[in-house]
Amino acid sequence: MSGHSKWATIKHKKGAADAKRGRLFTKLIKEITMAARLGGGDPGGNPRLRKAIDDAKAVNMPADNIKRGIQRGTGELPGVTYEEVNYEGYGPGGVAVFIEAMTDNKNRTLPEIRTIFSKHGGNLGESGSVRFLFQKKGYIAIEKDKASEDTVMEAAIEAGADDVRSTDQYHEVVTEPESFTSVKTSLEERKLPIAVAEVSMLPTTEVVLDQRKADQMVKLMEALEDHDDVQHVWANFDFEETA
Fold this sequence. Notes:
Layout: H1 2-16, H2 21-39, H3 47-58, H4 63-74, E1 83-90, E2 96-103, H5 106-119, E3 123-124, E4 134-143, H6 149-159, E5 163-166, E6 170-175, H7 180-189, E7 194-203, E8 207-209, H8 211-226, E9 230-235, E10 237-239
Parallel strand pairs: 8-10
Antiparallel strand pairs: 1-2, 1-3, 2-9, 4-6, 4-7, 5-6
Helix pairs in contact: 2-3, 2-4, 6-7
C-alpha cells in the first residue's frame, strides 16, 4: 500500500493548495446527489451520504449547496440524472488504473477518457481487465510525527479496523468499507489528526516505476482526476520519492 499512500497524500497536499474549488464542489455535489438518490436523504441512515457531506464540509461548501444536492437526489428538486460507471486501463510501465465516474452521457465520457490515457502513455482496457487487482477497503492515513504507532494501533483495532501498518511517513489504517465511518469517528474522538480518509480501491500488488515513468504516471492521474466526470482514480504504482 506504500504506492497508494504516496498518491493519496500527494493528492491531499495538492488539494489543500488547489484553486480548482469549483471543480471540486461539482464532484462533491454529484456524489451527494447520487448518495441521496440511492440511499435516501437522511445521512443518519445513509453512510455514503454522511461521508459525502463530511467531505463537502471539510472544504467549506455552503450548507445550501449541500441541501440542494440532497434534494436533487431525493427528487424534491429537478436536476440532471447521473449514471455511475467504471473505467479500467493501463498507465506507463503496465500500471493498473481503476476509475469511478459519474456521467450524464457515457457516449461523451468514454472517448474523452480514452484520449487522456493515450496522451499520457497509457491505454483504456476492457471492463474487468484490472478490477481483480484491487480490493475495496476503508483507508485512513495519519502522519507518523503526529502520533505513535502504538496509539494508532490501539485506537484502530479497538474500533474494529482490519489492519494497521506504517510507511516512511504514515500510519495506515485499513478497514472493511462498512466499518470505515465508525473507525474514522473513533480515531477523531481520540484527537488523532487524520491526513487522508476515504473508501478506496486498494491494490493487492504494486508496480515499481523509475522516476521518468513515475512522473508520467502522476501526470496521467492528475489529468484523469481533472476530468469533470471522474470521481475517483486508483492505481497500483510505487516509486522512489526524490528529495
